[in-house]
Amino acid sequence: MRLFRDKQIKFFGLFLLLFMLLTFFSGIGLNLVQEEEVKNLFLSHDRAIATSLLEQGVSKEVIAKAVTNTVSNQEGEDLLVYIGVTEDTAIRFLPFIAEFQQVSRYMMMLVGAGLTLFLFGGTYLFLWKRDQLYQQGLKVITRFTEGDFSYHLPQRNEGTIYCLFASVDQLATILQSKNETEHKAKEFLKNTISDISHQLKTPLAALMMYHEIISAEPDQLETVSAYAQKTGLALKRMEELIQALLKITRLDAGSIVFEKESCCISELVAQGICELTTRAAREGKEIIVDQAPEETILCDWQWTSEAVGNIVKNALDHTVPGGKIHITWKRTPAMIRLIISDNGTGIAPEDLHHIFKRFYRSKKSLDTQGAGLGLSLTKSIVEGQNGTLSVQSTLHEGTVFTLSFLTEM
């Protein structure tokens, strides 16, 4: 039974069993003592009668016969009635019986008091230990209500109370995890708002300046046209920045559900680079898609094509005119790898472990385009689909990004 897995209850049960055994053997002992007292009582009574009859000259034979006689008659009963010895006679008038009663009463009171103290002491000890356990649990639960989860309820033994403590401890762990999640969510929201405000500060300041220039020289068409163009670029940058931030925020918050489907890699790549080929041609760069064997991967078409486009855009940002970006893919027994490489400026070793951080810009690339969000967004997209994104780079030689996805089962 689960009840007796609790050590305290088990010991209390053994204590009650011991108490019952003590009560039983105490009853047997009292019975033996009473038997001895009854025997002594009758011996004392017979000795007193024999002594009295001898003093009155009654022969020993008659006395012996009277003492050993077990049969009574009416004359004997009448005689006892005459001298006042009947069933209604008070015990105090029967000295031998009164003495026996007094001795028996004292012995029973003594044994009863001893057993009562023993039962009370054992029960008090059990209840005191139980109360200590409850007090300990109460203190820990009070800590939980105050938000301090560094304490734990006792779970060193088995039993219902310890199962209850384990459940409460598990509940506290869930509450702690929930509190930490809420705290992280608040920190995340705080950091996101800070990032947005910081990143929008520069284009907003530029827009205000352009507006002042245009307002000051409304008749200068060339000036108005030039700064109107700059205003458009600043607005476009702000739109791209806000969109990227919103996407990263939704991905980090887990509010995006990727709708996976079987996608042809060549079509996925074509979708990702369709808006970048014009830029590449304008900048004198080339995007080369290798004619690798056709493969399919299980992914979200829209998000994954955007991830590919972000990496290619990053490659265009860090290659000089005449540079080339190669895109290929290959299958391994467990994964399909999409590889995007370039022969651009490469990444310094000290920057390699930071490039996926939000808004990170290397000191060597401050003059390049972008706000430092593309690679962070790409990493969130790939890892959100249980894929991996890795990078290898050699400074002044080029960079290789590898997107790895599990093969379809």
UniProtKB/TrEMBL annotation:
GO terms for biological process: cellular response to phosphate starvation. Its EC number is 2.7.13.3. One of its GO terms (cellular component) is plasma membrane. GO terms for molecular function: phosphoprotein phosphatase activity; phosphorelay sensor kinase activity. It comes from the Bacteria. Residues 195-409 form the Histidine kinase domain. It catalyses: ATP + protein L-histidine = ADP + protein N-phospho-L-histidine. Its main location: membrane. The keyword RNA-binding does not apply. The chain crosses the membrane at residues 12-33, 106-127. Keywords: Kinase, Membrane, Phosphoprotein, Transferase, Transmembrane, Transmembrane helix, Two-component regulatory system. This is histidine kinase.
